[in-house]
Design a protein that fits this description.
The protein has a single domain, classed as Sodium/glucose cotransporter. The protein is 75% helix and 2% strand. It contains 18 helices and 2 strands. It has a two-stranded antiparallel sheet. The N and C termini lie far apart (61 Å). The mean pLDDT is 86.
Length: 510
């Protein structure tokens, strides 16, 4: 292994040890289940904002968006960015404060528990259904994150895939199990800074190597359909492919997913002072827009770098490694540059880890708190609840490792599917629970089941038919779940006065 590779590897290993150190330090502040899953509702506004967005973006930010822009131009990447940016802002503006207040008033520490408490579901059927959906969609998603870490070390340094994947999983599992929600949120905050540094450094270095932004844009203008929002560039034929109105709407639907993301909604529930959510909203929205636009520009810059021979031409799925290729080039400029390249690659690790830790936490809470304690009513002594929560997290991490064992499995394919699953099964329930007084548990149960099931039906049975049915499954599933929730709520008994009184109390709060 060369001195350059060793320097990059050292930077990445030090980063991993730093994350573990944070977990050990914050374990001192994690003494109860409430601390483990919500950090005792003590998050500050900046940590709330940046940890929420870091846990949201995953590797999609540093690999997915640049890859899309590199290969097909700005259309799909831009409409995705617009949908995610609008969804982010509306979620912070509309959902955050009321969810924070409602979960505190109803004494709920997880999202599934809130659903049952909101609707007076004494048997915790809603909690069980929600917990099952979390496990179904999150455990394979977590596995894809472990796989991404393994593939990164394997492709860069020739380290055995399985060894790298297992070590990465152990690091993520360790700091999350030790420090719980506070560790996940604090490390996510740090990881968002590392991701930002990686984006800025690669964009500046890449632009210089590409011959300046003028040369970058000239190259892009010469490609049919590359710089328009109404067409995509087909690299194989060199032609423009129309980006239809239906496709645009389907892509914008990514924004609907935010209303049902457990790991993002948990940050709303955990902030120390809900009056500081306005600051969090502004920080989160600005960071999301700037970081995604920078990622898009990296894809365009990377294409020009290929054009002038600085990096090789990337095809198909390989386009998602454009930021890795630029980091490799950066590392050839001396030890200091290699160290910076290692930080950039740590940014890719950060993007993956910041999502995986939140998914582990949400999945373990579903097993220990929502299924064992709430639904099955298993009595666990207070002193052992934290131990059970940590053991649940470890078991789920082990399962995810086995799911990630196949080196050739797709890392990113499941991301959009899991996003759609949470958006459709939880999103309508969250919105109606917070903003419709007449909503009841029967409607919530029907809507949650319909949303999750419809994701599978549309993805595997309807969408393959093509034509106007070939749209992102989140959009039709979300609409169907919302409509069914409303119809069933109106067709069944109105909620009890105790529940509507609590709704009125939360709504009246200023």
């Amino acid at each position: 292994m060369s001195a350059t590779s060793i320097t990059m590897l050292v930077a990445m290993v030090l980063y991993l040890f730093g994350m573990m150190g944070i977990g050990i330090k914050l374990s001192e502040k994690t003494s109860s289940v409430g601390d483990f899953y919500l950090g005792g509702r003590k998050l500050g506004p900046f940590v709330t904002a940046m940890s929420a967005e870091a846990s949201d973006m995953s590797s999609w930010l540093l690999m997915g968006i640049p890859g899309l822009a590199y290969l097909a131009g700005i259309a799909e990447a831009s409409w995705t960015i617009i949908g995610l940016a609008v969804g982010t802002y509306i979620n912070w503006l509309v959902v955050a404060k009321k969810l924070r207040r409602y979960t505190e008033k109803s004494r709920s520490i997880t999202l599934p528990e809130f659903f049952s408490n909101r609707y007076g579901d004494k048997r915790y059927v809603l909690t069980l259904i929600a917990a099952i959906w979390i496990i179904v969609f999150f455990v394979p998603y977590t596995a894809s994150g472990f796989a991404a870490c393994g593939k990164l070390f394997n492709s860069l340094f020739g380290v055995d895939y399985h060894a790298a994947m297992i070590i990465s999983a152990i690091v993520i599992m360790f700091y999350t199990a030790m420090g719980g929600f506070l560790a996940a949120s604090t490390t996510d905050f740090i990881q968002s800074i590392v991701m930002s540094f990686a984006l800025i450094l690669i964009l500046i270095f890449g632009t210089v190597k590409a011959g300046g932004m003028g040369a970058v844009m000239e190259n892009a203008k010469g490609l049919a359909g590359y710089l328009t929002l109404t067409a995509s560039h087909d690299a194989a034929t060199g032609t423009a492919v129309p980006y239809t109105f239906l496709t645009i709407v389907s892509t914008l639907a990514w924004g609907l997913g935010y209303f049902g993301m457990p790991h993002i909604l948990l940050r709303f529930m955990a902030i120390e002072d809900d009056n500081k959510l306005k600051l969090s909203r502004r920080v989160a929205s600005v960071w999301v827009v700037i970081s995604m636009c920078a990622a898009l520009l990296i894809g365009i810059v990377g294409l020009q770098m290929s054009h002038v021979g600085e990096i090789k031409t990337l095809e198909a799925a390989e386009s998602e490694t454009v930021i890795v290729k630029i980091a490799d080039l950066l590392a050839t400029n001396g030890i200091l540059a290699a160290l910076f390249a290692g930080v950039v690659l740590s940014g890719i690790l950060a993007a993956t880890m910041s999502t995986a830790d939140s998914q582990l936490l949400a999945s373990s809470s579903s097993v220990s708190n929502d299924i064992l304690t709430k639904f099955f009513g298993i009595k666990i002594k207070e002193g052992k609840q934290l131990l059970v929560s940590r053991l649940s997290l470890i078991v789920i991490a082990v399962v995810a490792v086995f799911l990630a064992w196949n080196k050739d499995s797709s890392v990113f394919r499941i991301v959009s599917f899991a996003w759609a699953g949470f958006g459709a099964s939880f999103g309508p329930v969250v919105l109606l629970a917070l903003f419709w007084r007449r909503s009841n548990r029967y409607g919530a149960i029907a809507g949650m089941l319909a949303g999750g099931i419809m994701i599978f039906i549309w993805k595997f049975a309807v969408r393959p038919m093509g034509g106007i049915l070939d749209i992102y499954e989140l959009l039709p599933a979300f609409i169907i779940a919302l409509v069914i929730n409303i119809i069933v709520s109106l067709a069944t008994k109105a909620p009890d006065k105790e529940l509507t009184d609590l709704y009125d109390e939360v709504t009246a709060m200023k």
